[in-house]
Amino acid sequence: MRTQVGIVGAGPAGLLLAHLLHLRGIASVVVEARSRDYVENRIRAGVLEHTTEDLLVGAGLGARMQREGLAHHGVHLRFAGRDHRIDFAALTGRHVTVYSQHKVVQDLIAARLAAGQPLLFEAADVAVHDISGDRPRLTFRHDGAAQELTCDVIAGCDGFHGICRPAIPSGVLEIFERTYPFAWLGILAEARPAADELVYVNHPRGFALLSMRSPELVRLYLQCAPDEDLEAWSDDRIWAELAARSAREGFALNEGPIVQRGITPMRSFVVAPMQYGRLFLAGDAAHIVPPTGAKGLNLAAADVAVLARALEAFFRHGDTGRLAAYSATCLDRVWKVQRFSWWMTSMLHRFEQHSRFERRVQLAELEYLAGSTAASTALAENYVGLQLAV
Ligand code: FAS
Ligand code: PHB
User: In the prediction, which pLDDT does 204 show?
Assistant: First the structure.
């Protein structure tokens, strides 16, 4: 088989890249290790930046998101028993959209299949070859047969645990990482949200986040130990801990059946450069942010918007300038988003190793935010999404 762009991974990065390339008349093949059912039902991110919403609408993918997504014009920070609302609309004139990542993936897969474009699920033993030449190759097994896909370019959109980043020779990549001394225990529950907008909680017992997926479905998180045993958390214990951390006068959580639960590790991770030869990394394959800033999915979308534009210049005009600058262009945004995600995580979580002084400074940070329009604006403009570099 032959194509212009071989794409490894059918997550948000790989699928959105394939769609943006198709709109530009550039052929691609998406090769995904898991089944369609698995990728369409994997519960992950929930918040789309205004920037990502614009990108999806501009690519003709906004219909269901605009029908089912919830526009949010602010978020609440809850600390010391009080709330401070960050008013996105007043501070930035923009908003975010609560729309589950698995629905974004479903919409992208539907668009891919409707366009009759190649999307191969359950591909085994995927490997990349000759990435330093101008005819890189993908090999894999599909439907029991060995396959080889000759490409002009390969996009590594295969997430943090994929095979593309490791295919880059040792010594090429500079790795930046930080592992946090906690994780998130997340649940999906059939209950009405107790607040109209997201509530980020800084509490002496630990961080909590009250998010949602719809007026009937909540997505709630608790800071927990990095090696937390999920089995040790009964439904009652989860609800009791969420209530204790989110307590505020006049506020009460709505409980309901927990339909999904899991533990998400917390790390900051970046590789530089995000490219080698004809291999270009995008999304979680290149970087991971702690989800406190709601950025993982949005960073993936920003990467592929830059890559699609660079590949258009390359295939249409033979211009390699944008491709050569791909990594630097993406990393400018990646590092600003890493900073924001690290800052939100540092400000809102309980660090066992913190001294009394550090804990009081953390509270002062929140109090300063609550009293400063400038500080609240800085949080708001990062949360709704920095301008794309395309
Ligand atoms: P993805 O990991 O989504 O997709 C990579 C794809 O590549 C997968 O489908 C995988 O099966 C496939 N793949 C892997 N190896 C392969 C191989 N060898 N061959 C072929 N295919 C291969 N972000 C937020 O903003 N908010 C959140 O609340 C949030 N929660 C998260 C919870 C969890 C448990 C995880 C793991 C991540 C969470 N994230 C969150 C981050 C998440 O949303 C990612 O940023 C987003 O999925 C990135 O998209 P991709 O880069 O496409 O990577
Ligand atoms: C979610 O709804 O899953 C979500 C929202 C905001 C975050 C992280 C996760 O910061």
Answer: 97
Q: Strand, coil or helix: what is 52?
A: helix
Is the pLDDT assigned to residue 389 strictly greater than 80?
no
Q: How far is the CA of 184 from the centre of ligand 2 (A)?
A: 11
**Cis preceding linkage at 273, omega within 30:** yes
Give CA–CA dist 136/113, Å, rounded. 25
Whether 383 sits among the annotated catalytic residues: the reply is yes
Report which protein residue has its CA nearest ligand 2's atom 7.
294
Q: For the purposes of burial, counting CB atoms within 10 Å of the CB of 118, is it exposed (0-12), middle (13-18) or buried (19 or more)?
A: middle
Q: Is 84 a known active-site residue?
A: no
Output the residue whose Cα is nearest ligand 2's atom 2.
Answer: 46
Burial class of residue 143 (count of CB atoms within 10 Å of its CB; 0-12, 13-18, 19+):
exposed
What is the average per-residue pLDDT within 64-82?
97
Q: What is the pLDDT of residues 220-256, one digit of tens each?
A: 999 999 999 999 999 999 999 999 999 999 999 999 9
pTM above 0.85, yes or no: yes
**How far apart, in Å, are the Cα atoms of 103 and each of 7, 68, 207?**
20, 10, 27
Q: Is 98 helix (H, G, I), strand (E, B) or coil?
A: strand
How far is C-alpha 298 from the geometric centre of its chain's CA atoms?
5
Mean pLDDT of 344-373: 97
User: CB neighbours of 107 closer than 8 A, spacing ≥ 6?
Assistant: 56, 61, 64, 65
CA 156 vs. chain centroid, Å, equals 16
CA 284 / ligand 1 centre spacing (Å): 6
Q: Please give the distance, rounded to the nearest whole angstrom, from the Cα atom of residue 61 to the centre of ligand 2.
A: 21
**Domain segments of the chain as ranges:** 5-72+95-176+266-349
Q: What tokens were used for 311?
A: 């590949």
Counting residues of the chain whose pLDDT is more than 90, the rounded percentage is 99
pLDDT(277) > 80: yes
Q: Which protein residue has the closest C-alpha to ligand 1 atom 33?
A: 44
pLDDT of amino acid 28: 98
For domain 5-72+95-176+266-349, the question of CATH label 3.50.50.60 is answered with: yes
